[in-house]
Amino acid sequence: MEGAGRSLGARALLSLICAGPMSRAELGRRLGLSAATTTRTVRPLIEASLVEEGPPAQAGGPGRPTRLLAVVPTSATVVGIKLTDDRLYAVLTDALGQVLAGASRPLTVTDPHSVTTLIASVVTRLARRSDRRPDAIGIALGAAVVERRTVVVASFLGWRDVPLADMVGEATSLPCVVANDVRAFAYAESWYGTGHGHDPFALVTFGAGIGCGIAVGGEVVSGARGAAGSVGHLPVAPSGPSCEIGHAGCARALASTAAILRAAAEHLGCEPEELSVERLLSPQLREHPGIDEVLRRAALAAGRVVGSLIAYVDPELVVVSGEGVAVLEAYRETFEEEIAGLRHWTAAPVPVLLRPFEFDEWARGAAALALERWALVAGDR
Ligand SMILES: [Zn+2]
């Protein structure tokens, strides 16, 4: 996402964080550097205790034993934060993205200043758990974000043009970056998750919103205005119900959590607030033909979104996550048939992985952004 202008040291550090331990020769190959330049690049990183060299190991073939370079896990700690409309989730990770501690707080007031104050207090508490000042903060939320700093629009919080990175940076005196949550999640997944080693890689999420992140060459496409991957309002069934801004049968109107609960509540004659996706998936409620239809329609809509994405991008792997994954698991056949139906007749099927969902994973995505920020500065010293 911040490809231009990285120093060699920063690129080397990032490669080792993203791809794990590797030999000098492998690192040189990845960065397109000669052996001498690789050695010159790595030396200051080792001297600064950011990178360590393992004991000599035989690489399986003939020749000299190689020593693997690895990032020192304790060389950094970062905080990753995910904001939802009613809760804040935070994790503290080490330099390899391993979670050291987590925290979660209700979000009772959502104006930018109150949220900034809450973030600062959670960061302080997490810092105490690790007994050191974090090196950077990453924040992810369901919003369009530009330049990793400014939230352009976050409708679920009622925000417009909020310079969140600067506000949190000032409140904590720590470097802070902000990004769209789905793209941050896609970033973490392509760094050290299921997407690792798959290029291009796409992550699609179904939940309160519907979005996707597309990673190409290890970078997640952000778009000219920070809005790449906003697939929620694509039309999927023109005769379907309308979304909150009046599109008939867009993906959001059929497959977002609120839409599913609203449609189910109409069938059951109750309020959407009394329901949950989990309850709808219980055997008793699924037997209700109206509920079965609502859930099947959501799986079909999700299949159309994923199938279209595959047609546009031809990814090596698609990971689907978010709380809506439970519906797709229950209606997997409908979901997969829809994807298969959209496939070009000469194209090979693309593997689509359903990934169980945890809010911590979102926060971990935000931590990956913070780690990148740290590596860019630390590797440059
Ligand atoms: Zn819509």
TrEMBL record:
Q: Which InterPro entries match?
A: ATPase_NBD (IPR043129), ROK (IPR000600), WH-like_DNA-bd_sf (IPR036388), WH_DNA-bd_sf (IPR036390)
| Family indicated by similarity | Belongs to the ROK (NagC/XylR) family.
Family annotation (PANTHER family): BIFUNCTIONAL UDP-N-ACETYLGLUCOSAMINE 2-EPIMERASE_N-ACETYLMANNOSAMINE KINASE, ROK (REPRESSOR, ORF, KINASE) FAMILY
Under which name does UniProt file this protein? Answer: ROK family transcriptional regulator
